[in-house]
């Protein structure tokens, strides 16, 4: 399942990030978003979702949410 389909308020473990873009991978890693890390969808928005990773909250677009497999 991807973050786009994940339930709000449920904690998940990131299993895979499906992208070949090295810059995007580096950006996600800087947020603490990598395989094995815990992530929670705080809320779904029209064009993405708000996620909680470690001590931060981030707004990610729907394309990025589809790339993160939990």
Automatic annotation (TrEMBL):
InterPro entries: Fe-transptr_FeoA-like, FeoA_core_dom, Transcriptional_repressor_C. GO terms for molecular function: transition metal ion binding. Keywords: Iron. Residues 1-70 form the Ferrous iron transporter FeoA-like domain. It comes from the Bacteria. Pfam families: FeoA. This is Ferrous iron transport protein A. The lineage of its organism: Bacteria, Bacillati, Bacillota, Clostridia, Eubacteriales.
């Amino acid at each position: 399942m991807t973050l786009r389909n994940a339930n709000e308020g449920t904690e998940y473990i990131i299993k895979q990030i499906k992208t070949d873009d090295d810059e995007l991978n580096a950006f996600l890693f800087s947020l603490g978003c990598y395989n094995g890390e815990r992530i929670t969808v705080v809320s779904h928005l029209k064009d993405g979702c708000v996620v909680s990773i470690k001590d931060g909250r981030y707004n990610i677009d729907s394309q990025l949410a589809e790339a993160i497999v939990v």
